[in-house]
Amino acid sequence: MNKANNGTGYIPGIKIGFDVLDDCQSPEAASRNALTFVEGWLPSWLKNCTKPTNSINIGIIGPSRSTSALRVASLLRDINVTIISYAATNADLTKTTYPTFLRTVPSDVDQMTMIASLMKQLNWTFVVIAHKSNEYGTSGAKLLKAKSEELGICVQDVLPIIDFNHNSDFTKSLISLLLQSKGSSLALVFIGSRDDAENLMFMINNMAPQNRINKFGLHIILSDSANTDDTIYKDKEYGYGTFSVATSAIILQDVLSDLQSKFRRVRDKSENHKLIQEFIDDFPKEELFADNHHNAFIPMTIHAIFALVEAFKTKYTQLCGGAGNLCKTLLDSLQLGELDLVSSAANVKVQYKDMDPNIPPNWFRTNNYVVSFDAEGNMKQTNQDPLYTVYQYQEKYIPVGFYRDSQLHLNTSLIKMKTSSGDVSTIQTSVCQNFCDKCVTKGKIPISVMPGDFYILGIFSIHDQDDDPYQCGPFRNFSNDAIAAEGFFFAVKKLSALTGINFGAIAIDDCYSPVRATTILSSYFYDETDEKNPLFESQISISKIVGVVGCLSSSCTLPIATFFTPHRIPVISYSSSTPDLDDKLNYPYFLRTVPSDMFQARVMLQVIQKMNWQYVGLIYIKNNYGTKAMKAFKALAATENSSVCVAEEIGIGAKSSDLDEGDFF
Prior knowledge:
By secondary structure, the protein is of the alpha/beta class. It has an 8-stranded mixed beta sheet with strand order 5-4-6-7-8-11-12-13, with helices on both faces. A 6-stranded mixed beta sheet has the order 16-20-17-21-22-23, with helices on both faces. Helix 2 packs parallel to helix 3 (66-75) and helix 15 runs parallel beside helix 16 (554-564). The radius of gyration is 32 Å and the shape is globular.
């Protein structure tokens, strides 16, 4: 900021000031700080009782923690305040959900993809994820589990950490999982803050050996919040070989020199600086910028500052030209709440090479760095710097790899780790010893095939849907689809006998899940040019399918009908009654052997009218079948001659409700 204000200034005639507010790692304090800063965005009619000011608040840099950033972004969502964070990585922080939020740090989607790739290259196939029970930890753990499983890595458990007591449930679970690993050698990924990482190291360091369990058998990867702060290993026997990822390995030498000079001046009492003095008082023998190194988030902070200032400069130039002051047009726009700095920031393009050489860090200018944001508010990668650097602690952190353009480049020859007995060696294993229930593959997808020259496909809901929509739940003992599947094969055999055509049959259990049904079909059928999928023992070309019978549910039939329409293959449902499928323009090859819900709704209305009922309740299942039937009934009841008034409808889940019947009305 001082550099931008030197000489004629980044915006001639305009001085950029700032307030620094400490949120003390508290979402509540961060929210309070944000609210104290909001007044500048409020329209004039809300500020009639406040003292006028000639200053303009142009935005917020931060918060640094995802938990606080989520709270502040939600709080200020409707006030049109630009928020640019240099460190909040939670994947939920998108511009779609929080329209005023931007960031100069990569999203956790990138980080967890990279960590999964790291485990893959280390040949770790049996891992545990531990996380703090906050938004950053919970969201990151969920992402990492999905990314790991995509690469064939078994995540045996995901452990939330409430406390770091050596007798906690977390510690007991960790010991149990070590016993399941081959050679008591287990990979643990920890997603939490720097302080949490230090607490984890302290807890593991104090673990006493038990039977064949030794703390050195735990091999840890720390997420980027821990960064490269090696003080977390101070005075600890444990920690050698730990991996940590950092978002930037760039050292801005001119910035570092300024920071070191300021630190020396404060230490020598020739300059005052409250925060640096607080550090000196707490750690009198330590250097704030030791080993010629600064915090990895400093480059991202500088990007955030210039993005915000450039966004204001764009608006200032549009409204004031070269006035050299805050012109009336700009101030009027601010008073009316029409100064849209959010859009200006979202579309900003900071080009360091075009700046006065005395303003930006030299590295950014000479390497032509550009700051701009994508549609979700993440900073675009426009230079060749790694998105992440992988470090390993070997008495100090050394870089062993980097992640760029979605590829991890790992130098395994630099990696050193301790064996379970504590000896320094090379890369250690992390595999399941015998039977690990979460690592059992699901096997082949259950498909029953009756060979033939041409095929009829049947889709049935023999099992219920699991919480994971790709998997199957318990047997649907209240449905007759198992019997329907038997009848399907019987009918195809009869059809072959009657016609003399060798019809084959394929039956699939969709487990009452449209996601599962479409996933299986898109994987199972192939064109002649496609490679076959190893998930299936045999596959059929889609050109041999002459018709489809199914599905049971309307929610499944809709995507299935869409799937087969381009192939001009008829789909005939024995149960789907949604009115959506009456649309012959979008579903020209769909037929059914049950009436549309439009007929059902009409009959239900006629029954009510025959009973002379004029006020009725309406309960429906919240899926396509229930929702569309509900809307069809309401539409008919709303006609002038129906004389039926429908009370407020109540939607319930397809599974057992936890509501008492008295709560429905």
